[in-house]
């Protein structure tokens, strides 16, 4: 349901009791409370329960009810979007934290390897050694570029990899 129009006077129990029961069941459906008369104390009580709006039944025939319903539904959609964004933000922050830890762990050995390869390239003149060290250096540079992309990761979007496995696209 998008919305519940709750009357205060119901057979067997009142709208407040039903609203409390809905909340105990953690149902997050917006409720607009309807009553016959303007009762300030009742209005305050239902608003404390988190009711979206409080209307007197005589207002139902006016444009107030349709506007109220549209506003309540729109606020609910905005709350849902905000919740989705907050979850995505927390997920992205967790991913970024993981990436930072991984890159820190990889960075030191890579730096040491790169420095040693550069020293060997400068000191030794053997062609085969230069060829293989050049290949190692090129691969180290590729890894370093991937680490930079990991550190700059700004989204939690993934791409299809194999069957049900998804991974981050760092290409």
Short description:
By secondary structure, the protein is mainly alpha-helical. The chain has two domains: 4-62, 3-Layer(aba) Sandwich (Rossmann fold), CATH 3.40.50.2300; 92-167.
Notes on the structure:
- The chain has 171 residues and is mainly alpha-helical.
- It folds into two domains: 4-62, Response regulator (Rossmann fold); 92-167.
- 61% of the residues lie in helices and 12% in strands.
- The protein is built from four helices and five strands, in the order βαβαβααββ.
- The chain has helices at residues 15-24, 40-48, 64-123, 127-151, and strands at 4-7, 31-35, 53-56, 159-162, 165-167.
- It is rod-shaped.
What is the rounded distance between the termini? 44 Å
Largest sheet strand order: 1-2-3
Largest sheet: 3 strands, parallel
Query: Which quaternary structure do these chains form?
Result: single chain
Q: List low-confidence stretches.
A: none
Could you spell the SSE succession in H and E letters? Answer: EHEHEHHEE
Q: Report mean pLDDT, rounded to a whole number.
A: 80
What is the strand tally? 5
Total number of helices? 4
């Amino acid at each position: 349901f998008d919305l519940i129009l709750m009357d205060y006077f119901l057979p067997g129990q009142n709208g407040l009791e039903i609203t409390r029961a809905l909340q105990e069941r953690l149902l997050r459906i917006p409720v607009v409370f309807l009553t016959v008369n303007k009762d300030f104390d009742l209005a305050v009580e239902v608003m404390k329960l988190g009711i979206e709006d409080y209307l007197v039944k005589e207002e139902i025939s006016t444009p107030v009810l349709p506007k109220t319903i549209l506003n309540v539904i729109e606020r609910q959609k905005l709350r849902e979007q905000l919740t989705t964004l907050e979850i995505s933000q927390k997920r992205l922050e967790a991913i970024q934290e993981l990436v930072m830890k991984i890159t820190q762990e990889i960075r030191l050995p890579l730096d040491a390897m790169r420095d040693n390869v550069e020293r060997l390239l400068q000191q030794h003149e053997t062609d085969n050694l230069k060829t293989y060290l050049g290949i190692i250096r090129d691969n180290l540079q590729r890894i370093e570029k991937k680490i930079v992309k990991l550190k700059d990761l700004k989204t939690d979007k993934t791409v299809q990899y194999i069957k049900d496995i998804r991974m981050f696209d760092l290409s």
